Amino acid sequence: MFDCLIYNMKEQMALFVIENNGKTVLIDTGTSSEVDSLLNHLQNIGIDHLDYIFSTHVHVDHIGGVKRLSTQFPEAKIVVSEFYQKLPETKFAKKESDLAEYHEYLVQNLKNRVIYVGEGDIISLDDLKLEIYSAPGHTPEHIAILDRKNMNLFPGDSIGGHHLGSGFSRPTAYPPYFNHESYSKTVKKLSQIDNVKSISLAHFGVATGPEVQEVFKISEDVFKAYKDTVVESYQKNNGDLNLIITALLDKFGRSPNEIKHNRPDALIFRTLGGISIGFINTLDLKSKFKVDSK
Ligand SMILES: [Zn+2]
User: Fold this and answer.
1) Where are the beta strands (DSSP E) in the chain?
2) Which fold has domain 2-209?
3) Res. 80 pLDDT band, cuts 50 70 90
C-alpha cells in the first residue's frame, strides 16, 4: 500500500502494488499529479516494470495517472471493465460522459494494450490469481479484484469510502452514476465471498480479521443513515439543497481530516451537496415528492 498524498493530503488515497514471482500489478493510479511520487515509490521498493495497471472505475483519483504511467511502462496492459465494450448501447454513452471520454482515450492511444474483464475472469501473476467481480453502484462499470492467493479484496470505491484509521465514513454516492440499488447488491455480494482475510481500502487502509465484516456492515449502514437523512430533510425542506446539506452536517459532522486541516465550509458543502444529489437522483425524490428542487 502506498499513500499517494492525493491533493497533498495524507491517508486519503491508497494505491496498491502486487508483486508475485516477478509479475507486477498496480491497482489504480491516483491523479496525474501523484505519478512522480508513485514512480519514486516503485523504484524504492525495487519495481522496475508493471505488467498490469488496473482501473477499478472511471473517477479521476483512480485513473488520472494512466496516461503518464502507460508511457512510463510501455509493456503494461491496462485492465478495465468489459462494460466499456457495450458502452455505446447504454444510457451512459453520451459524448460528454467521463466513461465515454476514458474509453475513447484507451481505444485511440492504447488499443492493443487494453484487457477487458468481467465477473469471474482471472488475471494470473504466475501462481497468484486475481479474480474479477463486477461491482456496480458507485459507478456502473466498477470492478473489484480478489487476490485468491492471499484472499485479499480490492474493492475500489464499490463498498464506500471508509477510512480505517479514523473510523470515519461517508457514502460514495456521487452523481451522475450512483445507483443505490446496485450498490447494496454489490456490498452484499462481496460480503458473501468466503474466507476473505483482508480488504485493501482505497480511502484508506487495510482491514484485517474481524474488521473485514465490520467494513461491509459500515458500508451498508452509513449509506442507509445518509439516505434516510436526505429523504427526511428533502421532504421537510421542500427540496432545498442547502438545508439538506446542513442537516447532513449537523447529524454526521466533519471528518477528522477536515477538522484537522480546517477545510473551508464551501468544500465540505460541495462534497455533501454531491452526496445529496446522488441520493436525490437515484431515489427519484423530485417526482416522488413533487417539489421544484432548488
Ligand atoms: Zn470513485
Assistant:
1) 2-3, 14-20, 23-27, 52-54, 77-81, 114-117, 122-125, 128-134, 143-147, 152-154, 198-201, 205-208
2) Metallo-beta-lactamase; Chain A (3.60.15)
3) very high
